[in-house]
Structure formats: structure tokens, C-alpha cells
Amino acid sequence: SGSKGKGNPFLVPGATVATIAMLGALHARRMYSDKKIEEARESGIEPELQPDVKVLNSVFHLLSYFEPRRKELPVWVRPYAHRAWARAFHSNLEEVGLPLKEYASLKDFAIRRLKDGARPINSDPHTLMSPVDGTVLRVGELKEGVMIEQVKGFSYSVSSLLGARSLLPLMAPPAHEDTSCQQENKLSSKSWWRISLASPKLREEPSSPPSPMKGLFYCVIYLTPGNYHRIHSPVDWNVLVRRHFSGRLYPLHSRAIRTIKNLYVENERVVLEGRWQEGYMAMAAVGATNIGSIELFIEPGLRTNLPRKKLVQSEAPQERVYEPQVMLKKGDEVGAFNMG
Amino acid sequence: STVVLVFQAPTTSPSSEFSFCVEKGDKIQMGEALGR
Fold first, then answer.
1. H helix or E strand, kind and range, residue A63
2. Which of A130, A215, A285 sits opposite B28 (nearest CB)?
3. Using the beta-carbon criterion (under 8 Å), do A169 and B8 form an inter-chain contact?
4. I want to staple A276 with a disulfide (CB 3.0 to 4.6 A). Which of A34, A135, A217, A281 is the partner?
């Protein structure tokens, strides 16, 4: 080895210089990307977690099938298991509908009913009530662009959330644009849905009373694992279409919202569309890692979060038109987020 | 999990204009008014 080393006097110094140069380049690159992240954070944009989608996705799906939560527990264990769950996720045991030993598994406990009267329904016919327990993440009116902000610096489109074939009413372009031809060629078979936000010239004839201008509003509510997980009807409305998007099961907690883009349009979700007294109404139930399956009491046969042979890009959503329409009263149970 | 509502409501009209009675960060229970 000694003689070999003597054979090439430049080997060791060359390798040393190359190594130092490479380390220097890596360090410079790291400093550059840190500076970029710092600048982004200063402007309020969280660095995006570059998820290795396939790995993450399979892990999250496997988690959602995690057996023990669906296992039937021995009767004597149940109160301890459910109390532990309640303590971990701050559930209110005072409101639970049945004695704890009646819930055979954690899955049953997660979808528990509450005691009668625990959630009085706001009876004012002019109010729209919350369909679930949770925390309000976003509320607002959709102006020109139908985009909902996920986090500062990133928004997703409502049509991606609800589906390309959504009945979402057209947002008429701003009044200054000539909308006559656009209106004709845009009105399609669902014209009864195409409610143009009437610009002055499109307003109805003076003879009929001016119909109120309509806006599109949205509200995003996040449920923590300990929340009551049944979904109720926010108003009296008729449901016309159900759309199920089999998708990913990224977590939906605040850290994930800040770092994984497109969460709401990537995750498994079920969308209901219909109409209420003021026009269009849609409700999207978006699943997450520990809550993989979304049950619809109005369509008990629906199964979500089915094991897939391989990770496929989210296929086109499965759609079902309800005929006759499903009529829901304000406060009716519609479905639930469940484990598994 | 998360629920997203998207709905039409009056913006400017003689009788009523929809407005939310909750704002970002509020905790809410099922059955409580979101807006009117």
C-alpha cells in the first residue's frame, strides 16, 4: 500500500481538495435554501413539507386500518379505554349518550351519540346552523375567484373541492364585461343552477320585484379527534347529488394545513350538493388519517377508504344522483366520520 | 376531519343580507347558529 501511495503523489491532495469543494458547495446550497425559507417565513408563507407522497400516503392509509381501534373490548376494559381516549382528546364524558361499557370498541365510542338535549338546534328559520362540533378555520364570501385560502400564501379552488361536475352556480363576470354572449354559451343543461349574479343590465324586468343579489359563502370547520363526530343538516334542504372522492388521508391538524398543500382537494371526501331556500348548498366531509371512513346515514351502502391495490392518483369521483331528492330538515343526522 | 359548507345567500336586498355570526378561530357546537 505504501508503494501504491507513492505512485501517484496527487491522489491524496486531489481527493482532499475535491471533498472540501463538495462540502463547501453543499454548505452554500444549504445556506441559500435556509435564506429562502427565512424570506418565505417572513412573508408569512410556511415552508412546504415536501412529503414523499407514496410513503406518507401508504403509512396514513395503514394507520386508518389500525385494527385495535375496531377490536371489540372486554366489557370491564371499556370504561378505562374510553376514559383514556376522552382524556387524551378532551372529549366531554358528561354528554355521552350511553354508559361507557355499552361502547364495544373505540370505533363505536368515536361515533357515539350525545344525550338528548346536549345540542339544542337553533330553530330560527333564517339561521344556518353548524353541522358539526369543531373550530371555525375559515368563513367568508367567495368574490371574483372561487378560491378558499388554506393558509396565508396558498388557496384551493372550490370547484376542485366539490368536483369538476359540481352544480356550483356561475359567478357572473364583473359588470363591465359584456356578459350576454358568455351567458348564452355558458348556460348548460343545469341552467337552473346557473344563477348569474345579475349585473345591472341583466337584472330582471322592472315589473317583477327585484330578486335579491346572491353571493356564495363558505365556512370551514375542523373537528379534533375528541369532538362529537356526527354530521347534521345545517338547514332545511334537498340533496340532489352525492360525490365520493377516494383520495389520500393526510392529517388535517394545523401543522399539516400549514405545510402540505392541496390537503382539502387531495384527501378522501364525500360531497353533498343540493338547494335550500336561498339557492345552492353544498357540504363536503373531508376525511383524515385517523378518521378514514365517512358514513352517510342517508346512503348506508356507501363505503369509503377502501384498500386500494396500488396507490393511484385520485380517480374521478363516484357520483350518485338522488332520485327522488333527499329532503333534510335542519338538525337531521346526515352522516359521521368514523375510524377504519 | 373537516366539514366545508359552500352556499348561496342574499348579499344586498331589501329584506335581508346574510352575515356570519362566527369568525375564524371560534369553537362551535353542532346546532349553534353559523350565520343569519
1. helix A53-64
2. A130
3. yes
4. A281
